[in-house]
Every structure is written in C-alpha cells, then in structure tokens.
Amino acid sequence: AQRVTQPEKLLSVFKGAPVELKCNYSYSGSPELFWYVQYSRQRLQLLLRHISRESIKGFTADLNKGETSFHLKKPFAQEEDSAMYYCALTASGGSYIPTFGRGTSLIVHP
Amino acid sequence: DAGVIQSPRHEVTEMGQEVTLRCKPISGHDYLFWYRQTMMRGLELLIYFNNNVPIDDSGMPEDRFSAKMPNASFSTLKIQPSEPRDSAVYFCASSLTGGTLAGTEAFFGQGTRLTVV
Q1: What is the pLDDT of residues A73-92, one digit of tens each?
Q2: Staple partner for A84: which of A7, A38, B21, B115, CB 3.0–4.6 Å?
Q3: CA of B45, closest CA in chain A: separation in Å?
C-alpha cells in the first residue's frame, strides 16, 4: 500500500524566511512524487514533480529514496506563497492513482 | 480546453435531501477521480473510474454515496440522503495515462462546496 505523510498541518513563517514543508512516503516500488498547491478558494494545481527536477516559483523538492522523503523547500518565502500544499505519490508503471497527504497550510506573514 | 468543470460551485441543502454533484473531465482523459476535502481528513479519494468503469469505490464512506460515469465526458456523485457530516468540498479530477514519461498529473476542478444543514 502507498502512503504519504505530511507531519505539519500548519507552518507559519515571516516573509523572507526559508521554508521547508515535509513529506514522507511509504511505497515498496518506484514512486513518482508530486507537490500540489491550492491557493485560497481555488482548485488544486500541480506545483512540481520530482521526475522533472524543476524549480517552480522558487520552490524545489528532491526525492531522497534513502529517507523516503520529498520535502518542498524555498529559500525566501513570499506572502503570495501562502496556500495549502499537498504532497502526492503515484505508483510508477502501475496504478496511476495519486495518493495525497493531508496537506500543510503555509502562512507567510509580512 | 476549459479544464475540469464541476457544478454547482456551492450547494446548500437540508438534511435528508438528495444531492447530485456533476463533473466534466478534460476531453481525452481516461481516469476520473472524486475526492472529498475536509479540515480533519485532508483530501480523501472516494472513487475513481478508468475509461468510464468504476475501478475502486472503497473510499466511499457509506451506501448513501454513489457515483456514475455514463460516458467519457460526464460523471456524477450522488448523496442520498445527505447528512450534516457530509459537508465538505468535493473535487473531481482527471488524468491522462499510458506511455507518459513525465509523471501523471491530475487536473482538478474548482470543487463543489457542500453544506448540509
């Protein structure tokens, strides 16, 4: 079974501070990991995926298979980053059903 | 494509009434998902379809919930009878699978905010 854990329900930082949203997963095979973002009262949208190794809006995430983690990082938070962030896992080469973590609410204060 | 379209955006109903939520997936997508979002539980997968066929409905909380996908461009989630604890935001999402090397992204609708009083 695949499982995604986001240990923090809420993360509160000041503008300009570094941000790290934690995500751990459990899956016996080779996973595909994603971060989705949901701004206030909007739909969830893909932020980034591990396979692309990209930086989006200053955010990066590295898949660490040894620690089974896919933490989302940004060196300097902006107020517009305030949103709900969901980590998700899809089983590579098999079921394409995304399993989501419970989400972390990021609040960036001015 | 306008993306995944859900209707209504908001629904307020009285306990015991039937509620029907609607979803139009992105054309050509072969998977459709229904999720429920609450503060307590986050995003829960209720049911998903592959090529219009229900594959796994183990996430459907009770027999009061049912979902159908009569064709590739339409799906419904029905709650009958509705209860106050069903109040949540219900999301529909679709994805295109098979052969992609870039990771399978799920595209979400705007959601339906359901309030049962």
Answers
A1: 999 999 999 999 999 998 76
A2: A38
A3: 8
Local structure of residue B17 (DSSP, 8 states) = -
Q: Which residues contact B22 (CB under 8 A, 6 or more apart)?
A: B6, B7, B8, B74, B75, B76
**Nearest C-alpha in B relative to A47:** B105
Report angle CA A89, A93, A94 to the nearest 5 degrees: 75
Residue whose C-alpha is closest to residue A18's, from A63, A58, A70, A68: A58
Question: What are the pLDDT digits (tens) for A56-78?
Answer: 899 999 899 899 999 999 999 99
Interface of B with A in 1-60 (CB under 8 A): 4, 31, 33, 35, 41-43, 45, 48, 56
Overall domain count for chain A: 1
Contact by Cβ (8 Å): A36, A45: yes
DSSP state of B80: S
CATH number, domain of A36, equals 2.60.40.10
* Strand ranges in B51-102 using DSSP code E only, listed in sequence order: 53-56, 65-71, 74-79, 88-95
